[in-house]
Amino acid sequence: MIDQYLREGPLVDLPLHPRQHTYQAGKSTESALHQLVSRLERALDQKQYALGVFFDIEGAFDNSSPCSVRYALDEWRVIKPVKNWIVNMIESCSIHVCLENSNIVVQAGRRLPQGGSLSPTVWSLIADSLLKWLSKQGVYAQGFADDGIAVVIGCFLTTLCEIMQRVLKGVEHWCMERELSVNPSKTELMLFTRKYKVDRLSPVIFYGKELTLYKQMNYLGVILDPKLSWKLLVDVKCNKALAAFYQVRTTTSKTWGASPKVVHWIYMAVIRPMLTYAAVIWWPRARYITVSKQLTCYNSYISTTIGVPVYYRSHENNSYSSYETAGRSGSATYTFIQQEAIMAYYRLRAASQWVDGRGEHAKISQKWHN
Question: Residue 45's pLDDT band (boundaries 50, 70, 90)?
């Protein structure tokens, strides 16, 4: 009831930051990745640098104190009875355990309860002020649960480092006010550029520790590289899918093991989604000849070893064709990757989360209209 009041009352009058992509209808990792990649691609197409810091707020729920909760509720002008109820719920929560004649009472920590139905909404209110402050500084800011991103875009690395240093000082101050913290060892610095010769970066200090410049990083299950080439991402996806097939193979034989129906279900529900996750941002990579060879091996293993034919819908006659009719070339999986990207585009557009742009992955909208 309290959660419904917050969503239908204060959050209607004062919505959350549009780039907060969690605990909201119509938003997901797809929307977060698409909007981030769209902004990075635009910077790279304009031959600019994009200096990004990816940070993680330690123990988002476990470390959210009553002080930070009260601060957030005041910003959203939550009525006093509801505000007092939420704060008292956090401060006075106790755990009772009864077993036969024994009765144990433990005072819970004064933090947001893990798994509580109200905790995600309250945490969104707390983190929203940081995203709004970052946006006012002129940087691209985005949040997903306790993960945050700050991206500074420009043509001069020295200036970008100075701006980023000032932004990180502001993040430290925000965490101090709300009794939160960011682990600098889990904070990653990455420079996105297509230039071959890059000037040396000035040191960027966060919580007294110089941040290390990474050449690759994992964000929301997707491996990002400085040029957004997606080469390593596709290699890792194919290798993971093949490793999963090898595991299935050890439990399957002609005379014993799982039935073809079960194997087909494993392929459709587990292995194929592993390969096509976030296809909306990396699908252009699947057109490369090297990737086509990888997909050919992928299809061959499915069809010959496990015996599950790869089906794809033909756009020409709106009919289904099997792997054998695909010419043993990997086109079946590539077509399915395109289909997944198109469906993701449709979902994002229906939820008003699609950002039109001239980036490579945004061209999937043309395939939809065609």
Answer: very high
Long-range contacts, 308-314 (Cβ 8 Å, 24+): 308/260, 308/263, 308/264, 308/267, 310/336, 312/336, 312/339, 313/339
Distances (CA, A) of 334 to 222, 299, 306: 18, 10, 20
100-109 residue pLDDT tens: 778 887 776 6
Query: Hey, is 213 helix, strand or coil?
Result: strand
Evaluate if residue 370 carries a pLDDT over 70.
Answer: no
Q: Is 230 left (phi over 0), alpha (psi -120 to 50) or beta?
A: left
pLDDT tens across 175-211, in order?
888 888 888 888 999 999 998 888 888 999 999 899 9
Max Cα distance, the chain (Å): 74
In the chain, where does DSSP find H-type helix?
2-8, 10-13, 29-45, 66-75, 80-91, 119-136, 157-177, 231-249, 260-266, 272-276, 279-282, 289-300, 331-350, 364-369
User: What whole-number distance in Å separates Cα of residue 337 and Cα of residue 291?
Assistant: 12
Dihedral sign, CA of 218, 222, 227, 230?
Answer: positive
Distance of CA 152 to CAs 53, 87, 156, 165, Å?
A: 9, 36, 11, 11
Helix (H, G, I), strand (E, B) or coil at 212: coil
CB 268 within 8 A of CB 248: no
Nearest to 75 by CA among 19, 113, 118, 132: 132
Distance CA 175, CA 181 (A): 5
Amino acid occupying residue 259: S
| pTM (two decimals) | 0.85
State the Cα–Cα distance between residues 131 and 143, nearest whole angstrom: 7
Can you give the length of the chain in residues?
Answer: 370
SS3 for 284?
A: helix
What does the DSSP 8-state code read for residue 271?
I
Query: Can you tell me the distance from the alpha carbon of 189 to that of 199, in angstroms, rounded to the nearest whole number?
Result: 15
**Spatial separation of the C-alpha atoms in residues 57 and 286, rounded to whole Å:** 35
